[in-house]
Amino acid sequence: MIKVLIKYRLLFLSLVILLTVLACLKIPSVEINTDFSQFLPDNDPEYELYKTLRAEIKDDESILIIGVEHTPSIYNKQFLHETQRFIDSLHQIDGINHINALTNLSYPVISLFGVMSVPYLKLNDSLDVNSYKSKIRKDFHLTQNFVNNEETVLFVWLEFKDVKNPSQVENALLSIETIRTKFPDLKTYVWGKRYLQKELNEITKNSTKNIVLWVLLFLIIALSLIFRSPWSVLFSLLLVVVAFILFFGGMVGLNRPFNIMSNLFPIIILIVGISDIIHLSIKYNA
Prior knowledge:
The protein is α+β, with helices and mostly antiparallel strands. The chain has helices spanning 2-7, 9-26, 45-56, 77-90, 133-138, 140-143, 166-182, 193-227, 230-253, 264-285, and strands at 32-33, 63-69, 96-100, 106-111, 114-119, 153-160, 187-191, 258-259.
């Protein structure tokens, strides 16, 4: 095998360079998957039942909740008007299907003209918003989904149009973050599987990047002490970087997302790759 590599070294070198260039072009398309369910066994009966129920019942992936806090109480007309403006801005997002909150929630009332819907909060009338407290508290079995027990947080429920369209969901989440920055007076919090997954993806991406950078810095220092030759250090790092590029490009080419377990592969590449290079370089120089 070694003789074949030496004989056709230019061909193999050209092939490696070509694959490295192609892998570099594919690296921006690396996908990150932080779903823990991917590590559960498919033949587990309880997991099979879980998947069946998830297929029949609409799951929580399409739901996003935004909490808007105001102390000492949400029953403040200026705060409620600002919150309504915030909700109206959310309605402009293309990837959002439905938005429900206490400001647009109503209850049925039987009248002479039939059943009518009466809003729990009427922001456009002259009445004090505190006058609506009793009805909201009386129907807490329904309103508890839109206000907390201490009445200091309003919950805004959003539903994504198509959770199977990752780009649409990503754009909707970015639009939500943009709108949140436009309302600095509102103290908002976000809950939801898609939002948490996006944040976890960012954490995974940043942590992997930081680990690789710090390990490379340590390798530069260690290799400089071992070889005492800039060319040897540069050659060793070049081989490791090429291995990284081929690894990430290969994952994209094989349509494999970068998951939690994949964090181990860069470390393995560094350990195995550098150790072999050190042994080969020392043996060659000897």
